[in-house]
Specification:
The complex is a heterodimer of chains A (about 500) and B (about 50).
Chain A lengths: L2 H21 L5 H6 L6 H12 L2 H4 L1 H9 L2 H25 L8 H9 L7 H33 L3 H17 L1 H31 L2 H10 L25 H16 L2 H8 L4 H32 L12 H9 L2 H39 L5 H27 L7 H23 L5 H21 L7 H19 L5 H8 L5 H11 L3
Helix pairs in contact in A: 1-9, 1-10, 1-16, 3-10, 3-14, 3-16, 5-6, 5-14, 6-12, 6-13, 6-14, 7-8, 8-9, 8-16, 8-17, 8-18, 9-16, 9-17, 10-14, 10-16, 11-14, 12-18, 14-15, 15-16, 16-17, 18-19, 18-20, 19-20, 21-22
Chain B lengths: L3 H27 L15 H5 L1
Classes of the chains: A mainly alpha (about 500), B mainly alpha (about 50).
C-alpha cells in the first residue's frame, strides 16, 4: 500500500479517537460552545497554535518567501507574530468577567445592547460570522481536496468526503473535541514542518548554501515570467518597497487580532491569566514552526528554482514533497498540511453552527431558559454542524470557484468591521452602540468599495477601510450618549454590581 | 542578506514578552484567584499553587 495512504489512515485514526474522547466530556450547552469556560493551559495552547497554522500559513509562507524573498518575513510572519504578541492583552480583557460570554455575538450583545434580548446587533454579527466562516470552511475543504488528490492520485471528490468525515467527527463533539484534535494537529504540524526543513537542509548542503543561492539567484518563480534582478530576494523590501511591506505588516497584525474565532478562543480558558499565558506560549512555540517554514521557502529556491507554468507558488511545498522528499518524511509533511486544514476548518464549522443556533435561532425564539431547552439547543448544534459540513463539501465537489482569494476577502472584511467594536469596546468605556453600528457599516462599505474599485492613493484596502471605521467610531461615540455602566463594567472592574450580573445572566439565558 | 526582516520579527517577539509580563503583573497585583493570580508570572492555576 502507498506509504502516503498508510500514514493518512494512522492520522485519521488518531483524530477520530481524540474526537471521541473529547466528545464524552460534553454535558451541557456551555461545554459544547466553549468547553464550559474551564479549558486548561495545555489544551488552550494546542488549539490556539493549530488555529494559527492554517493551510495559508503552512503552504503560503514558504511560497511567499520563495517568490518574494525575505521581505515576506516582515510583511507576513512579523505581522502575525505582532498580532499574537498583542493577544494576551485582548484575551485578559475578554476573559476578565466572572461570568464570561460564550460567543462573540453574545459579547457584542452585552457590550452594546444589554437590555435587548432580541438584539439586532447580535443577530447581525452572528449572520456575518455565519456567512464568513462558511466560506472559510468551504475553501479549506476545496484547498485540501486539490492538494491531497494531486499528490496521492486519489480522486478529488473522495478527498473532499474524507475531509468532511474528519471535520464532522471533530465538530460534533463540540469545543473540547475541537481543542483536543487541534492539539494533536499542532504536534503533527510541528513534526511535519521539521521533517520538511531537515530534508531541505540535507538536499541543499546546509544554511550557508541556501543563503548564498537565495541572494544571487535570478530564476523567476514561475516558468515564463521575466528573470529576477540579482539580490532582490535577499533585500529588505524586495520588489514591493518600504510602504507596501509596512502596510502588509499592519494589515496582518491588526486584522488578525479581531477575528471572531480568536475572541471565542479567549473565552474558553478557566481564567484570565490562562487566556493570556496560552497566547504567550503560542508566540514562543510558533518560532520553531515558522523557522522551519522559512528554511523550506528559501531552500526550495535552490532545489526547485522555477515552478512549472500553471501552478501558484503556494504549491511549492507540495511540489517539494512530491519530487524530493523521502516518502516517509514526505507523508509526514503532507500530514502537516492536512492537519493545518483540519485544525482551521473544524473551528470555523463550529462557529457557523453556534452563530446559527445559539446566536440567531435561540435569541429569536425567545423561549424561557430551562435544562430541557439547553439540551435541545445542544442537539441542534450537533445537527447543524453535520448539515453545514455536508453543504460545504457539496459546494467543494461542485467546484464553485470561490478560490483561495476568498480567504483574504473574509479576513479583510472581518478586520475592517470588527476592529473598532472589539478593541474600543474592551479598552474605551465611552464606546457605545451607535458607534459600534456605524463603524461596522462604514468598515464593510469601505472594504467592499476598495476591493471592487481599488483603494485611493494606492493604499492597502485594509488600512483604508479599518481606518475609516475607526475614525467614524471615534466621532460617533463622542457626539452620542454615554453607554450605561452594565455594558462595560465587567470588562473594566474586578467587582461588578448586582444589576450588571443580572444583565449578563439574562443575556446568556442562564437557568 | 538583509537582516531587517529578522529585526522586525525579533521586535514582534520581544513586544510579546513585554505585553505578557505587563498583563500578568496587573493580574498578580489584583491578587484575585478568580483571574488566575498565583504569585508567579508564568503560572495560571491558583489551586495547584495552594497545595
Amino acid at each position: 500500500m502507498n506509504i502516503y495512504l498508510i500514514i493518512f489512515i494512522v492520522y485519521f485514526g488518531i483524530i477520530i479517537a481524540t474526537s471521541i474522547a473529547g466528545s464524552k466530556k460534553v454535558e451541557s450547552m456551555e461545554d459544547f460552545a466553549v468547553g464550559g469556560n474551564k479549558m486548561g493551559l495545555l489544551l488552550g495552547v494546542g488549539t490556539s497554535m493549530a488555529t494559527w497554522l492554517s493551510v495559508a500559513s503552512v503552504m503560503g509562507v514558504p511560497g511567499n518567501i520563495y517568490s518574494r524573498g525575505v521581505c515576506a518575513i516582515t510583511g507576513w510572519i512579523a505581522g502575525w507574530f505582532f498580532a499574537t504578541a498583542v493577544m494576551p492583552m485582548v484575551a485578559y480583557k475578554i476573559r476578565r468577567p466572572a461570568v464570561p460570554c460564550r460567543t462573540f455575538p453574545e459579547l457584542i450583545n452585552l457590550r452594546y445592547d444589554p437590555h435587548n434580548e432580541k438584539s439586532p446587533i447580535r443577530i447581525f454579527v452572528a449572520a456575518v460570522e455565519l456567512v464568513g466562516y462558511f466560506v472559510f470552511s468551504f475553501i479549506q475543504i476545496q484547498g485540501f481536496g486539490i492538494v491531497l488528490s494531486s499528490i496521492t492520485g486519489i480522486s478529488y471528490n473522495i478527498c473532499c468526503v474524507a475531509f468532511m468525515i474528519i471535520l464532522i467527527f471533530t465538530c460534533m463533539g463540540g469545543f473540547e473535541s475541537v481543542a483536543r484534535t487541534d492539539t494533536a494537529n499542532a504536534i503533527l504540524i510541528l513534526i511535519g514542518v521539521i521533517a520538511g526543513a531537515v530534508t531541505v537542509m540535507q538536499l541543499t548542503g546546509g544554511i550557508g548554501n541556501i543563503v548564498e543561492n537565495f541572494v544571487t539567484t535570478t530564476a523567476p518563480a514561475i516558468e515564463g515570467q521575466p528573470a529576477l534582478e540579482a539580490g532582490v530576494l535577499g533585500s529588505s523590501w524586495g520588489v514591493f518597497g518600504v510602504s507596501a511591506i509596512i502596510s502588509t505588516f499592519l494589515s496582518n497584525a491588526f486584522g488578525s487580532i479581531v477575528a471572531p474565532h480568536w475572541v471565542a478562543r479567549f473565552m474558553a480558558p478557566k481564567n484570565a491569566k490562562t487566556a493570556a499565558l496560552q497566547m504567550f506560549c503560542v508566540l514562543l512555540l510558533l518560532i520553531p514552526v515558522f523557522g522551519c517554514l522559512i528554511i523550506i521557502g528559501m531552500g526550495g529556491k535552490m532545489i526547485l528554482p522555477t515552478l512549472p507554468a500553471g501552478v501558484t507558488t503556494d504549491y511549492m511545498f507540495p511540489q517539494l514533497i512530491m519530487n524530493y522528499l523521502n516518502p516517509v518524511l514526505g507523508a509526514l509533511a503532507l500530514t502537516a498540511i492536512c492537519a493545518a486544514a483540519v485544525s482551521t476548518a473544524n473551528s470555523m464549522l463550529l462557529h457557523c453552527s453556534t452563530s446559527l443556533v445559539y446566536d440567531i435561532k435561540r435569541v429569536l425564539q425567545d423561549k424561557k431558559a430551562s435544562a430541557e431547552n439547553d439540551d435541545k439547543t445542544t442537539k441542534e448544534l450537533r445537527m447543524w454542524v453535520l448539515l453545514l459540513g455536508v453543504l460545504a463539501v457539496l459546494g467543494a465537489i461542485a467546484q464553485f470557484s470561490l478560490l483561495a482569494q476568498g480567504f483574504t476577502y473574509v479576513y479583510g472584511a472581518f478586520g475592517s468591521m470588527f476592529f473598532a467594536p472589539i478593541l474600543f469596546g474592551l479598552f474605551v468605556k465611552r464606546m457605545n452602540q451607535p458607534a459600534a453600528w456605524t463603524s461596522m457599516i462604514v468598515g464593510l462599505i469601505a472594504y467592499l468599495y476598495c476591493t471592487i474599485c481599488g483603494a485611493p492613493l494606492g493604499l492597502p484596502t485594509f488600512i483604508v477601510s479599518a481606518g475609516l471605521s475607526v475614525i467614524s467610531a471615534i466621532i460617533i461615540m463622542n457626539v452620542t450618549k454615554k453607554p450605561p455602566v452594565e455594558t462595560y463594567e465587567a470588562f473594566f472592574f474586578d467587582e461588578v454590581s448586582e444589576e450588571t450580573l443580572r444583565t449578563i445572566h439574562k443575556i446568556r439565558k442562564d437557568i | 542578506m538583509s537582516i531587517v526582516p529578522f529585526v522586525f520579527w525579533g521586535a514582534s517577539i520581544l513586544s510579546g514578552v513585554v505585553i505578557y509580563v505587563s498583563v500578568a503583573t496587573v493580574i498578580e497585583k489584583s491578587g484575585l484567584k478568580r483571574l488566575g493570580a498565583t504569585g508567579h508570572l508564568f503560572t495560571c492555576d491558583p489551586k495547584e499553587d495552594d497545595k
